[in-house]
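Exercise 7 asks you to align residues with tokens for two separate proteins.
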Amino acid sequence: MNNYGIYAIGAALVDTEIQVVDSDLQALNIDKGVMTLVDEKRQQHLLEHLHDKLVASELACGGSAANSVIAAQHFGSQTFFSCQVATDKHGKFYADDLIRTGVSTQARDHAKDGTTGKCLVMITPDAERTMNTHLGISETLSVDNIDEPALQASKFVYIEGYLVTSATGKPAAIKTRELAKAAGAQIAISLSDPAIVEYFRDGLLEIIGSGVDIIFCNEGEALNFTQAPTIEAAVEVLKSYCKSFVITRGAEPTWVFDGEALHQVHAQPVKAVDTNGAGDMFAGAFLAALDQGKTYMDAAAFANRAAAVVVSQFGPRLREGQYAELKNAL
């Protein structure tokens, strides 16, 4: 029986990243800076119009929680990821790519007929990421995808907030939180996206239930979730939902509440090229640091450093040498 530092559950999405300008988004009637769920026909329409702008690998194993556990695995934690893929070529690629990174998964065992989810990530010159996602088979992720032995053998359990959009994914997230609490694991959740918080706040409250150990969010998500007028007021409201939290604020200092005191941890100065995956990298690096005995302050400093590297280039993942250099710093 393996022991894991981090168990996570979330959507399995094959990413395609495209460099665009604001006029492309406007011409195609795409809302900038948020994640929008689309059907397969709409996603294909967008790809046909933007195919000449491809800047990254056409296929990349992605999804928010997957990006986080891949990072954590590279930083020295043992991780497990529960997800749902299809038996199509993209599903096979996804499971193989995940395993290549060292992350354990039940993806192959649970694959079923359908279409593996895909995310079209559009990056504008200001480094903002805009996502149009077709969940495909990921929308059917359910309690059946939870690997209870792996969860019960984990120190941290990480729940992707995007699961709130799925009729079966939300109950799976709730069940994951209940199982984690029973197992004595620390429960972390990401709020995922300002639009998700705006439209699915009640569902997120159901997932959080009587409270979790750690909430990861950015400033916009914190304000939307708490419905507070200022970030200072949001900090106080967040304390009623979790024991600790992290609010990332781009180039501004990260706010970290460790359960006792509120700290500000300076972000690493960097010229941002692509913010896709910044929050995922932060969460993965932060949890990996905690898993390895670091303090909240040290974990936040390390996570800021890792996020600064990922936003300085295209794509949500780092090169092997970059992971190794950061791991040595940890």
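Second protein for Exercise 7:
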Amino acid sequence: MSAGPVSDLAGMLAGMAPVLDARRWEFALITGDPPADAFALIREDEGLTAIVADADGAFARIALMVHSALDGVGLTAAVATALAAAGIACNVVAGFHHDHLFVPWERRGEALAILSDISARAAG
């Protein structure tokens, strides 16, 4: 049984356990019906964006496996700041259970190493 969402920053960082998805991902502006297999759909005034697996996609997805609380403070800032310090762009999508980071495909290994290091240091 799951312990439930983690809301304290130290616990969220220690429990991140980042996992790199092997698929490539793309952000696509959708006209018409959205693809049934889209990872996420974002409705904006300007249109519908879908995040879809694509063999030529420019992004890698790293899932943070900690069940972070939706009202937890600091996880997004901590990971985005660490990746920004290395010059790695990061687009964050929060799900109910996990946060998903989309980073440039060619920097995925470096991003995973940075996130793993943050988690290991927080775990002590």
